Amino acid sequence: MHRSSTRRAIAAIAIPLLCASPALPASSAPAQPLRYRLDAQASSVHARVGFFGIASKTARFPSMSGGIQIDPARLDAIRLDVQLDARALQAGDSVTLARLKGADFFDVAHYPEVRFLGRTMAMTGPVTAYVDGDLTARGVTRPARLSVTFTAPPAQANGQQPMHLSARTTIDRTDFGMTAYRLIVSRKVTITIDAQMVPA
After folding, report:
1. 43 vs 63: CA distance, rounded Å
2. Cβ distance 77 to 120 under 8 Å?
3. What is the DSSP string of 125-143?
4. 52: which residues sit within 8 A by CB, 6+ positions away?
5. Has residue 18 been placed in a domain?
């Protein structure tokens, strides 16, 4: 009888305490990736190619769009999209410009867009990384890797401040069907991107 009374007394104390215990917090939902859009007015893209082995010529793409989607907790799962209007391409002189826009090179009448779409990123330092993806030019898509430098660690991005990055890659123009003038124009083309991204 004594034991039964003791058990009832313990239960009478324990049950209200359990009911009054605060509920465990529900697991928080995964954070959404941060989205930024490319500020074309504050960005630039250039393509430089060797000429006669002693000089170089540079083309500029002033018309562009795109953006970046990034999760500071999962920087590998990036999406970097840069779209260039090849019809707006600019060069230092009218002869070079006509050739670049013509069928031997960008053939802008048939292929008006140049696009890089990055899908994975490997950090090599707090603000440096490789971004791997695909480059499409003249209707041909090839794998490409950008060497990227951020002005601030992307792991600290908050989606409220602009994000600035510079990137560089070198391609073989013949991989994209630009095979003309091999004796005087280098096959290697260096592409540089200076991009200002603003919160979308």
Report:
1. 10
2. yes
3. SSSEEEEEEEEEETTEEEE
4. 184
5. no
pLDDT of residue 52: 86
If you search the block for the tokens 């510079």, which residue do you land on? 166
Please give the distance of CA 59 from its chain centroid, rounded to a whole number: 21
pLDDT band at 139, cuts 50/70/90? very high
Domains contained in the chain, number: 1
pLDDT at 19: 46
- pTM recorded for the entire structure: 0.82
E strand intervals along 96-174? 113-123, 128-137, 140-150, 163-172
Q: Which domain holds residue 63?
A: 26-199
Calpha distance 154→72 (Å, rounded): 6
Residue 80 maps to a domain: yes
Residue whose C-alpha is closest to residue 115's, from 150, 78, 163, 64: 64
Position 29, amino acid: A
The DSSP code for 173 is: G
Q: Which of 47, 4, 33 is nearest to 191 (CA)?
A: 47
Task: Please tell me the predicted confidence (pLDDT) of residue 23.
Answer: 47
**CA 61/CA 83 separation, integer angstroms:** 10
Give the CATH number of the domain where residue 180 resides: 2.40.128.110
Task: Report residue 104 as tokens.
Answer: 């031997």
Q: Region 103-115: what's the mean pLDDT? A: 98
